[in-house]
Amino acid sequence: MPNLRIALAQTDPRVGDIAHNTDEVIRWSRQAVAAGARLVAFPEMALTGYPVEDLALRTSFVEASRAALVETAERLAAEGLGEVPVVLGYLGRKPETSSPQNCAAVLYRGEVALRFAKHFLPNYGVFDEYRYFVPGHQLPVLRVDGVDVALAICEDIWQEGGRVRATGEAGAGLLLVVNGSPYEQGKNDGRLELVRRRAAEAGCTLAYLNMVGGQDELVFDGDTLVVTKDGELLARGPKFEEALLVMDLELPAADRQDPDGTVYSDGLRLVRLDLGTAPVEQSEPAPAQDFPRLDDEAEIYAALVTGTRAYVRKNGFKSVLIGLSGGIDSALVAAIACDAIGAENVYCVSMPSRYSSQHSKDDAAELAHRTGLNFRTVSIAPMFDAYMESLGLTGLAEENLQSRLRGTLLMAISNQEGHIVLAPGNKSELAVGYSTLYGDSVGAFGPIKDVYKTLIFRLAKWRNELAEQRGETPPIPENTILKPPSAELRPDQVDSDSLPDYDLLDSVLDLYIEHDLGREAIVAKGFDPAVVDRVGRLVDTAEYKRRQYPPGPKISQKGFGRDRRLPITNGWRRG
Ligand SMILES: Nc1ncnc2c1ncn2[C@@H]1O[C@H](COP(=O)(O)OP(=O)(O)OC[C@H]2O[C@@H]([n+]3cccc(C(=O)O)c3)[C@H](O)[C@@H]2O)[C@@H](O)[C@H]1O
Ligand SMILES: Nc1ncnc2c1ncn2[C@@H]1O[C@H](COP(=O)(O)OP(=O)(O)OP(=O)(O)O)[C@@H](O)[C@H]1O
Ligand SMILES: NC(=O)CC[C@H](N)C(=O)O
Fold it and tell me: Where deamido-NAD(+) is bound, by residue (predicted)?
């Protein structure tokens, strides 16, 4: 069996920054070739970043992507890297109609030697690729060093048949799939299972390459996989980190001569690129690479850190600003921010009012002390008194005023000092509208907006335990984790005055939001009908608040935003 050394570049492209992405392709290809790779691959649309959304509809952007593809091929050759084929995802167009396509190409000897477009387009959850792309109908097969390598793009393996079945029919020795597959809790186990099943169906080894990094609300976790047709896991990339996976694969020698244009299942037509190269004897085997697996909390926390870092950095900011109340939400956001961009770039403000307890002020200062982030105190009392004198507010209006004064203060400091404001709202609050519009909901990015309150507590404890294991100071004060959550907008207020306990609330929200169950189905699971009705009503009438909330990293199967699109003006009240 010929040995094929492949290099899978698990990279972090930047959407729209084609020049940067091109430089990265050259840089990683240089490393791959130096490591003896005979085939190098990059993720889905690595040249443009992914997803590009309506940029796909701009002719200038499509043409820039296509031109950069040609230029990348030329630059690779000019650098002496042209003898190794590079598989690279880009934004292309259908030649006959100019419709945009989600494409990949093989670059070889200074030229774009083969182009193809994604066959199955995802159009659910966060994806709406039928808005942008038309599908491709080819089965691309690259013959390199005597091995037939079939190529596919992400969704191509998530649906039955298509390129997976055609790969089997064409008798390829390897199926290489380039991906832009966003993170969701538990998705990696599902992916491994899927990749195993598809490798068996294709009847060959499957190399699954995914990108890393963050793009607005999406986080890409890498977790590149190589699996044999018998389901043996040969290699697995790290989570959330860039890496070059170089490995030697023993693959069957190509023995098929199906002519170009052969039509397989689903009407997929063979397009063959035969490089005419012979297997290469490697002097040393590729060194084994082993990356640690992450447990549930570690994985979710890493996703939040990755998403926050990507948003802040890719939007050109150096520092963030957070209102630090001494409560668990802003504490976790501060810990995430410190891990994402370093405590020296995290600025926090304590903004006490007459209702702020001493422990809240102390807990906020204690967190600052433990982490070393930048901390100051600005009392909202004088501004509050001025408003009250002018307007004489009471009840909810008085409560919300405090939150809004804090929001205005944060925005003022942001404008003055150039930090980007992080909003500390969690998914439970967002679900029931338990936040003040233009108050604690101000901010540019919400690191924990897709995290239920019960999970916030788990993550805070996990982060502190991690610090202990590493011999470091746990960032979050014990008291912040132990005390009952309170907005402190009136004397002795606690969240449980107006909301069910978070364990109960999150259980109902999980069924209503994540599982889309209706009222009767939730009640049938043993929940109090009055609680179910109340929670359902709160969720349904808070859509307007969610639409005005900043973006934040998606970690669940149903993040508020593209995963769950409901009308704001909505008369349907039966769950
Ligand atoms: N469908 C709709 N489309 C657009 N706007 C709509 C609307 N329905 C109401 N509105 C408007 O929304 C405004 C009311 O919303 P808003 O001003 O936010 O006020 P509201 O939702 O009435 O009150 C805020 C709630 O959040 C709780 N809270 C506040 C702060 C922090 C925390 C915490 O612990 O984290 C909790 C607070 O206890 C209270 O229950 C009004 O101006 C109303 O006219
Ligand atoms: N005294 C305060 N100083 C600074 N920021 C505050 C203060 N009180 C509230 N905030 C800001 O408003 C957000 C909402 O806080 P609130 O105390 O109302 O409820 P919460 O959702 O339980 O949040 P937390 O757990 O962070 O306290 C906080 O996360 C924080 O960013
Ligand atoms: N980019 C894609 O085609 C992604 C779709 C696929 N179902 C995934 O989440 O991995």
Answer: 400, 429, 545
Last residue of some domain: 218, 242, 274? Answer: 274
Looking at the domain assignment, is residue 342 inside a domain?
A: yes
Q: Is the CB of 557 under 6 A from ligand 3?
A: no
Instruction: Supply the angle between the helices 395-417 and 381-391 in degrees, to the nearest 10.
Output: 130
Q: Specify the pairing of strand 86-93 against strand 320-323.
A: unpaired
Catalytic residue among 24, 103, 154, 314: 154
Whether 100 is covered by a domain: the verdict is: yes
Cα 559 to Cα 77, 183, 189, 429: the distances in Å are 44, 12, 20, 13
pLDDT digits (tens, 9 = 90+) for 270-293: 999 999 999 999 999 999 898 989
Distance, in Å, from the CA atom of 569 to the CA atom of 563, rounded to the nearest integer, reads 18
Residue located via tokens 């190269």: 277
Q: How far, in Å, CA of 317 to CA of 418, rounded?
A: 8
The full 3-state SS of 203-270, as one line of letters, equals CCEEEEEECEEEECCEEEEECCEEECCCCCEEEECCECCCEEEEEEEECCCCCCCCCCCCECHHHCEE
Residue 111 lies in domain: 3-274
Q: Is residue 551 part of a domain?
A: no
This model of the complex carries an ipTM of 0.89
Residues 339 and 213 in one domain: no
Residues 220 and 331 in one domain: no
pTM given for the model = 0.96
pLDDT digits (tens, 9 = 90+) for 296-336: 999 999 999 999 999 999 999 999 999 999 999 999 999 99
Considering the domain architecture, whether residues 250 and 370 belong to the same structural domain is answered as no
Ligand nearest to the Cα of 485, by number: 2
- Cβ(158) to ligand 3 under 6 A? yes
